[in-house]
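Let us practice reading a record.
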Amino acid sequence: MEIALDAMGGDHAPGPIVAGALKALELDPELRVTLVGDQAAIMPFLGETVPARVTIFHCTQVIGMDESPAAGFRRKPDNSIARCWQLLAQSKVGGIVSAGNTGAMVAGGLFSRRFLRHIDRPGIATVMPTLRGPSIMLDVGANVNPKAEQLFHYGVMGEIYARLMLNKAKPTIGLMNVGSEEGKGNELIKATQNLFNNSPLRGNYIGNIEGRDIHQGVADVIVTDGFVGNVVLKVCEGLFDFMIKMVGNELSQTLVNEKDLAKKALQTLISRYDYSAFGGAPLLGIDGICIISHGSSGERAIANALALAAQLARAGINNQIVQELDQLPALLSANQSAN
């Protein structure tokens, strides 16, 4: 189980990134990690010698967090993200993990064209906490102008992910829309509705859902385009930070004599729903495993991201995605003719 980890990606790299790798190795005796980045910058966080089950793949450049992905790949060919994708394309690793530039990670996948059969645009899937347990939403940023067939494929991949990783026996699928009524939405939404209603997934498909339904757990899989999904994700992240600060202030003012209890309750809430608990978001549709982590990921988040990559590989999620799409010849034929 070999995973390439972008040691230079993230707001605080490489220290917390390397620490997360070492933590993951402690938890998983079968895991091996290839740290991709500047060896001179990495070594101080490893000690005098490279630990067992760790390999360093030296490269000299880094694409900045706010740098244009296209410009970064053009000006910096020896960047750590490109080298991670290179290792995956050469089948030297089974998966890659990065907390670096998200756009560059997606661009690396598009440049490599290392997609699963039937998939022509991968999608980023992220776990959303709900009142009924976790759900999965995709796409949240990889494909801002999808076709209906691509949204349908996201539903297929999300349904498989929910079964394998979220332990949902028969995951429900909802399509993000401006209203729950069947007739609402633009032409893209209506075409996607038609694909779901005429597919083997029609028993899972519950129709349109609205933004307010997400955290109620109305659907186990939420399908949307990358533009809407990314906006929703960022709003949810901002609202979470806002609510944690507001709740913290209220608890400290209300439980004046129980500050330790208030602090413990707040820490429990943060640890349960903070992004680091999930590690990262998989880029589904890639022939291999790709996990995109939050830019501010620390040791815990990176360790969980590596664990998630190993879980997805062991579960054989890509084989199941291809097998399910193989059983949809009519829809796949429509997809191929549209492209």
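A brief commentary: The chain has two domains: 1-119+285-317+328-339, 122-278.
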